[in-house]
Each structure stands twice: as structure tokens, then as C-alpha cells.
């Protein structure tokens, strides 16, 4: 009889978590900015050329031994960065479009769960030879696990975006 109560309790907890996940946001949006003491073209070049990605990206730096593959011409739509690692999972970043002040990437996560996001960058002249960089990322939080983990993920993403921008600043200003 006790086993039956434990099973019912376990099923009840799962059902409660599924209901909670249903009411949690299914999307997220992160936006961080930083001023870098370099001209727009120099900063954009470090973002739109994925050959520099591993030198400033906080996730790649978290697992430097992970596998990465870069395809396509830098700063050109179709330029891709593939990654695969134990800590950072598996996915790809693909340059969708670029103009004088924007770079737009598509972000596809394959593992630990499949999802898609938009990774957008804005570069504005700021002062004398400085660039204000704004990094935006938005996407879906798949039901149920990503929604349940959403608040934790968003908190960590905010910290990682700040770290990534600081790394980009160090890379660019070290030129």
C-alpha cells in the first residue's frame, strides 16, 4: 500500500510540474550593451568573422577542448560555426544577414535539446572612434524542461552575455 502512495505522489509531482511549465513563458529575450574603444568596422569584423568566435565567446571558452568547425566566407551570409562538446552541447551559428550596423545570426541548438534562437547585433558609432555594441538574443523555451529551467537559464545567459561582451572588448581593444 505504501508503494502505491509513493507512486501516486510521484505522478502528482510530475503533473504539477507539467502544469507549472505550461504557464511559464515559452520565449526569452536577452539584451546587453557595451562601449568598445574601436571603430564600428573593427568591432563588426570580430563578430561577423566566426574565426574569432572562440577567442571571445564565453561558452566556447568554457570548454576549449570542444570540437568546432567553421564553414563559408567570413562576413558573408551562410558563414557558419558548428560546435560540439560535453559541457556546451551541440549546435551551429549561421550568419543570416549583415549591413553597415547590423549582424544577424540564426542559432540552432541540437543538444541537449533542440531549439532555435535569433542572435542579433547592433553597432553604433559612439563618441570619437568608439562603438556601442548591443547583443540581443531571443528564442523559444521548449515545453516542459526548458520552460521549467527558464528563470535559471535567463539568469545565466545575462551573466554570460556580459562576460562575452567584456571578452570582445578585450579582444578588440587589444588590436
What report would you give on this structure?
The protein has helices spanning 2-23, 40-48, 53-56, 58-62, 145-173; strands at residues 27-36, 67-71, 80-85, 89-98, 102-111, 115-125, 131-140. With 175 residues, the protein is an alpha+beta fold. It has a single domain, classed as START domain (Alpha-D-Glucose-1,6-Bisphosphate, Chain A, domain 4). The chain has a seven-stranded antiparallel beta sheet with strand order 1-7-6-5-4-3-2. The longest helix is centred in the last third of the chain and has 29 residues, at 145-173. The mean pLDDT is 94. The chain crosses the membrane at residues 6-24. Keywords: Membrane, Transmembrane, Transmembrane helix. InterPro entries: Polyketide_cyclase/dehydratase (IPR019587), START-like_dom_sf (IPR023393).
> How would you classify the helix and strand content by structural class?
alpha+beta
CA-based gyration radius: 19 Å
Class, according to the CATH hierarchy? Alpha Beta
CATH architecture: 2-Layer Sandwich
As residue ranges, the low-confidence spans are none
| Silhouette | elongated
CATH topology: Alpha-D-Glucose-1,6-Bisphosphate, Chain A, domain 4
**Topology, number of strands:** 7
Biggest pleated sheet = 7 strands, antiparallel
Please work out how many helical segments DSSP would assign: 5
Listing every helix as H and every strand as E from the N terminus to the C terminus, the arrangement reads HEHHHEEEEEEH
Q: Average pLDDT, to the nearest integer?
A: 94
The name of the CATH superfamily reads START domain
Strand order of the largest sheet: 1-7-6-5-4-3-2
**Fraction in beta strands:** 35-45%
Domain count: 1
Amino acid at each position: 500500500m505504501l508503494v502505491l502512495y509513493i507512486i501516486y505522489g510521484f505522478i502528482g509531482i510530475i503533473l504539477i510540474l507539467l502544469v507549472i511549465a505550461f504557464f511559464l513563458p515559452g520565449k526569452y529575450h536577452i539584451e546587453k550593451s557595451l562601449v568598445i574603444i574601436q571603430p564600428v568596422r573593427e568591432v563588426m569584423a570580430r563578430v561577423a568573422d566566426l574565426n574569432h568566435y572562440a577567442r571571445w565567446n564565453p561558452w566556447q571558452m568554457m570548454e576549449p577542448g570542444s570540437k568546432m568547425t567553421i564553414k563559408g566566407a567570413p562576413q558573408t551570409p551562410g558563414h557558419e560555426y558548428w560546435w560540439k562538446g560535453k559541457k556546451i552541447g551541440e549546435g551551429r551559428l549561421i550568419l543570416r544577414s549583415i549591413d553597415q550596423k547590423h549582424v544577424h545570426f540564426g542559432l540552432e541548438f541540437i543538444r541537449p535539446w533542440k531549439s532555435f534562437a535569433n542572435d542579433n547585433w547592433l553597432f553604433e558609432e559612439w563618441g570619437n572612434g568608439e562603438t556601442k555594441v548591443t547583443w540581443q538574443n531571443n528564442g523559444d523555451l521548449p515545453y516542459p524542461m526548458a520552460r521549467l529551467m527558464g528563470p535559471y537559464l535567463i539568469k545565466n545567459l545575462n551573466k554570460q552575455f556580459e562576460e562575452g561582451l567584456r571578452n570582445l572588448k578585450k579582444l578588440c581593444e587589444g588590436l
